[in-house]
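Risk register update: the risk that structure generation would not scale has been downgraded. Supporting records follow, first protein first.
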Amino acid sequence: MIKKLDLYIIKKFLGTFFFVMLIILTITVVFDTSEKLEDFLRNKIPVGEIIADYYVNFVLFYGNMFSSFILFLSIIWFTSKLASHSEIVAILSGGVSFNRLLRPYFLATTLVVALSLFLNHFIVPSANEKRLKFENKYTNYASIYTNRHLELESGVLVYYRWYNLREVMIERLWIEKWKEDSSGANIKYYDLQANRAYGDSLSNEWHLEQVFIREINPNGEVLQEYRQLDTTLSFTPEDFGQRDNHTSTMTTPELIKFRDQQLKRGADNIATIDIIRYERTAYPFASYVLTLIGMAVSCEKKRGGMGINLAIGIAAAISYFFLIKVTTVAATNAGLSPMLAVWAPNLLFSAIAIFIYFRTPK
């Protein structure tokens, strides 16, 4: 049963959380606006469109992304204030155990975690799609892929040296088609090479330049050369690669389906997709670990006051995000399991949280 003490702390908790989030997001929006103001003015974008199509989704994305960190700072802030006013001492002196005092903290954290999980898996991807469409339309971004091998269809192998997503232009495109002969051996029967290829992002129409085609049949080879060739291929530019954060526009069920498609094509971004999928659950659950650490380091009145607690909190948060970066790079480049890479920081900091918890005077 929730009592007055629980309501008091939950009110302080959530009030501080949303206040800190408002401050941080306001600063973030100001910096982002200053960076993109030239694009906004050049394209003469209505203010209403900037707010509705971009900044509403911008705030939703970054607010949810940094929710665990903001929650951590909020706990340190308001718990330090309670400790400085001797409220923590009064509560514990009144017969309330330290474990009982933790209950409203974890109740409030559970509300934030549940909301974050729902947003991560189902709502934020849609917001990201709108935000990225706005950026693609009005702002400059660079996204280049190089030296990729793909199997876009069964028996259809594609290689390209360089792909500019913004201009939908490929340099050194190579397409091979293979099939089984009567003996069961794989043989190549089609080979297309193009120095440059320009695709239509909405269709399968392609414009090729300096094209060489070789078709192999039982009667021999047929060679064709073209300076320019407009043709239809069985795939679109999206099949060659998406903007790096394109996967952030997919709900989790869509992301799982996309992963299966990429796996069949032999794509090399499977680990990255898995990391994104696991992060959507692991990051919100990090809030529980950070809640215990934040409360444990802030519940004592210290000579340095709130400042020393915030310094400890920021140092811990930086260490946490640095560890995340190290493990995700290891998963992407060194073969570490994506699930282990994403959850390892939570497991390590859980051990640290438990150590701090038992060291905290109660």
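Supporting record for the second protein:
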Amino acid sequence: MSHLSNRLAAVSVAALLAAAPALAQESGVGRPGEPIVIDQFQTGDIWSNMNVVMPDETDHAASTATASGNAAAAMAVSGDVHGEANQENTGNVGAEARLEGGLAYGQASAVATAYGNSATSTTGDGNSHVRSSQTMGGDTTASVEMELLGGNTVSSSSTAIANAVSTHAEYGDNYAEHEQYAEGSVTATTDADLCCDGTSATFSTVAGGNAVTSTGETTTAIQNATQTTAPGVTLRGTTDLYMYEATNAVAATTVAGNSYALENRFGYTALGTEEDALTQTNEGEVDAQTYVTVGAWNGYAATSAYGVGNSALVSNYGSDTTLYADQTNTGDVSAQASFDGTSSSGGVATLNSTAIGNAATASLCNVCGDAVLSGTTRQVNSGNVYSSGTMTVPSSGGVIGSASAIGNSATYQSGSS
């Protein structure tokens, strides 16, 4: 479950970076030997607020708030991207989205996204060579509030990350080197109160100090980073959901001090090297909380809280893969999840609470049988790790609960599909 939470967080960060506007933003494409250099400095506070009040009945309703201190982008439909981004932000960044009112016959959604610094790079049929340096000194906050009668499909996303990078390349090289430093606190919250949904209700909360996601297809991917979260920093994510009646409801909170996810297909892939390992140091306090109360539910009801000090993930399909990582966590890590509800229709409730000091995963799908998975991981954890879960279910078709607390976790796995 922890690996799945990690992947979901990585996907959500990449998607949000691709769509996010910015206050201070530059973009471009460079040729080999002629890199684009973007220097950005932000000192004031950045704040975005969107409040949508629905009528008693409507087809669709959405509330979206986005705030970013510095944002840099280098993109090419085809061809090479060669860029360098240097970003420093000493101000606070916040985004608030609120949705209230009646009933939406289609979709009702609320999205709040806040980045202290963000950089993204994409190319197809070309090489990507990217370097970035990011420092966030202020606090980063995102909050979603939802109070409405309901909708056919209901969803919300609250994401706050101090420093975030996303890269993608196809049919070429995918080289990257990043340096990230977070010295401000990060908070993401979701507070949802509604009667009912028709087919699904999904609520996601993500908070992180430093995050890098990279994807590739038929590329040679060689990447590295130094990620540091300073002492005294608090990284907190909270999801609080109340529904009178729910159908297929999901509430998930993911909080990470430092995270790097590199996913590639068909091409040599390396995260860190033997001489220069990926270095992650978290000295902040990590806290993930998810609370769900439903009067009754149909189908499934899934509740999860995932907190990790440092996370490194590399996965590949069909080619040699390596992971060299050096992870140190000194901050406390906690995860708490609770579910209270009943189902007279035979619905199944699941709860997962996972807290990890350091987590490293290298995965290779070895379709040809001759690809090699290798590497070295060093993990040191001195922070306290807590995980707790509570389920109160008088009636249901099934109840599954899990709570895991792990100091250090390292997995290298290879196999055929």
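The helical segments are 2-19. On this basis the risk owner (M.S.) recommends closing the item.
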